């Protein structure tokens, strides 16, 4: 009987001794900078007692300390504290626990020492691994979605400008400078223009058109392309256009953006192309937005009529719809314990 009582007493002593011995998990000193958080994660087993100690090294208050059972269950919160001694919390569920230290002071940081211990609830959890690990979870799903796709490319010409503009002389009460803005269509890959002064300039364009028509088959589906001098110029064909030597002249500048305003006001400006003559014809591979022709009549007495023609070649994608079976992968970061 005596031996039995002695054995029972020893077992009880061992159990009480084991159950009251804290196991160190973490002992750190951390600086919590102004207006920031410092966060740590540790694992605990059901039945554990969490023992928490904290001290601000310089005796200053820390705004908040919170212990949370992840993902969102707060189990302990302390405000404006300098020191916490042996705060014991009963752990009711195995999992990851978050320790958050918050400093809201806008001027200075806080130097914080903390110690985290656990008292196991049983011998079975004495060697519980408190390290928290991270892994990426991939959630894959499939869905049929409608997708827009290019079926083919449609190449076409578009007339951008076809106008006759009167530019007055230097001695006229009205300005001798005129700005004619224009915008190239979307998806333009090349363009060309013709400028001609007076009847001579118009006649040259008519002549070129007539010669192109003479050499074309009216029944051909390409007749409309072949019979236009600017279209021929863009395609690299012979356009029948040529420079004139006799007639009134215009000084023109091809400009971009706000340069025409500076030109009219007599300020410094940039231009893409400039020429003085009776007529001009140019193929352009440079495609820009907000373009303008700036026309100047340098005659003292006579006004001039200037014909401006602009043609663009554009390539538009033709679209259709189709159903596509698409895979979607959602990535989620997850914390876990290896127990």
**For the CA atoms, what is the radius of gyration?**
43 Å
Helix count equals: 5
> What is the class of the largest domain in the CATH system?
Mainly Beta
Helix content: 10-25%
Q: Classify the beta-strand content into a percent band.
A: over 45%
In N-to-C order, the SSE pattern is HEEEEEEEEEEEHHHEHEEEE
Distance between the termini: 42 Å
Mean pLDDT across residues: 91
What structural class is derived from the secondary structure elements?
A: alpha+beta
CATH architecture of the largest domain: Sandwich
Shape: elongated
At the fourth CATH level, what is the homologous superfamily of the largest domain? GOLD domain
CATH topology of the largest domain: Jelly Rolls
The domain count comes to 2
Provide an overview of this structure.
The chain has 339 residues and is of the alpha+beta class. It has two domains: 20-131, Jelly Rolls (Sandwich); 150-319, Jelly Rolls. The protein is built from five helices and 16 strands. The chain has helices at residues 2-19, 198-214, 223-226, 229-235, 259-264; strands at 23-32, 36-44, 49-56, 62-69, 73-81, 83-90, 95-103, 110-119, 133-167, 177-182, 188-197, 250-256, 273-277, 279-284, 291-296, 304-336. It has a four-stranded antiparallel β-sheet with strand order 1-8-3-6, with no helix packed on it. Strands 2-7-4-5 form a four-stranded antiparallel β-sheet, with no helix packed on it. Strands 9-16-11-14 form a four-stranded antiparallel β-sheet. The longest helix is centred in the N-terminal third of the chain and has 18 residues, at 2-19. The model is unreliable at 1-18 (pLDDT under 50).
């Amino acid at each position: 009987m005596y031996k039995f009582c002695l054995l029972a007493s020893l077992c009880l002593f061992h159990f009480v001794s084991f159950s009251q011995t804290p196991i160190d998990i973490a002992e750190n000193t951390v600086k919590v900078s102004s207006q920031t958080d410092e966060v740590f994660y540790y694992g605990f087993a059901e039945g554990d007692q969490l023992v928490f100690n904290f001290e601000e090294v310089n005796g200053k208050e820390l705004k908040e300390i919170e212990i949370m059972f992840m993902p969102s269950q707060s189990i302990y919160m302390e405000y404006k504290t300098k020191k916490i001694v042996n705060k014991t919390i009963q752990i009711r569920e195995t999992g990851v626990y978050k320790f958050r230290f918050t400093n809201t002071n806008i001027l200075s940081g806080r130097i914080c020492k903390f110690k985290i211990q656990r008292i196991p609830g049983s011998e079975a959890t004495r060697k519980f691994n408190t390290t928290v690990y991270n892994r990426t979870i991939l959630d894959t799903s499939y869905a049929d979605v409608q997708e827009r796709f290019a079926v083919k490319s449609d190449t076409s010409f578009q007339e951008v400008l076809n106008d006759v503009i009167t530019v007055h002389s230097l001695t006229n009460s009205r300005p001798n400078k005129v700005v004619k803005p224009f915008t190239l269509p979307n998806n333009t890959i090349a363009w060309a223009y013709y400028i001609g002064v007076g009847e001579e300039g118009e006649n040259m364009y008519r002549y070129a058109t007539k010669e192109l028509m003479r050499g074309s088959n009216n029944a051909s589906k390409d007749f409309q392309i072949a019979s236009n001098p600017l279209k021929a110029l863009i395609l690299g064909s012979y356009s029948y256009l040529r420079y004139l030597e006799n007639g009134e002249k215009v000084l023109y500048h091809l400009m971009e953006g706000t340069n025409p305003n500076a030109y009219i006001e007599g300020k410094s400006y940039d231009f893409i192309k400039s020429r003085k003559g009776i007529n001009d014809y140019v193929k352009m591979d440079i495609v820009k937005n907000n373009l303008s022709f700036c026309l100047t009549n340098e005659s003292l007495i006579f006004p001039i009529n200037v014909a401006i023609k602009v043609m663009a070649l554009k390539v538009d994608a033709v679209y259709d719809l189709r159903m596509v079976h698409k895979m979607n992968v959602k990535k989620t970061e997850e914390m876990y314990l290896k127990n």
